[in-house]
Amino acid sequence: MTDPDPAEPRPPTPAPGHPATLREVADRAQVHISTASRALDASQVGRISEATVARVRAAAAELRYAPDLVAAGLKRGRTATIGVVVADLANPYLGPLIRGISTVMEEQGIVPLIAETLEDEDRLERVLLGLVQRRVDAIITAATHLGDEPTLQQVSARGVPIVLAVRSLPGDGFATVVHDDVHGGGLAAAHLARLGHRTAAQLLGPADIDTFVRRSQGFAEGVRLEGLRDVSVGAHAASATLEEGRRLMAILLDGPDHPTAVFVPSDIMAVGAMEAMAERGLACPAHLSVVGYNDVPLGAHLSPPLTTIRLPSEELGRAAARLALRVIEDPAAHGPALRLPATFVQRASTGPPPR
To answer: How much is the mean pLDDT over the chain?
Structure first.
């Protein structure tokens, strides 16, 4: 079809309250309706001239046309939605993670559906099956516990690709994007050794979340390599919360061996640990140095500001979203787990050991 004559009358603008149709966009741009459809579809736009695409999109903008994404997706067997499952929306490191996922997905016209599990196994199963029933194109979960593999396999068997973010599972059955937590724990131990500490401890995160298992392993190995004496207690946190950080630090301080530095595998737990210290009249770092993990925004504004290991949540979210897009196209496309590097962030909560 040739370009329209500027002198020709333009089709009328739909009346207020009347949603524009694709037919009206095509008439306004003076192209066939199939051409208008392709011009507004990012996956097919390469088949049409740039001038035609610009004309169709200008017409769509003038008419405030909103494409029916559900209908378009059903033609391709897709719904243009993706499930994002997290453990606790109150945890500050998850906001940037969700932002990273959303940024990538929205560029592709995909809407994220966000749900939380509150670390409850039954709730995780209900959330996942609910997302399957809504025919999401894929699921990204950052709420996995080590015992959840059967539930995830059940979802995967229904044809919904799954991407694990932050938390992983043994083996290579799922597409995975995680942080290099082992190296992060090692960085904490090396930093304390450089400051001159010879006796250190760590508070243990939940034993059924591999993220905390890996951080613990990394710190323990770092302590061994640096020749530090480890006086950690064996109690694990039930969850990575302020209250559990306070409880575990109290157990450590009430024990027979007192370290001069403590590694806490979560910034939120570290806040609770520092509160337990203050209750006993201990100053940080004058009496006890503290290293956290995640680098949540709150950490830089504590008193003292928290030394920590940075987990680049937004970058990890973007990487998880890109991996999800890949496995939507080809469920077998993922390879080994992608590990983002750990970065050490020194602030004022660590210093030389007391004399």
So the answer is: 91
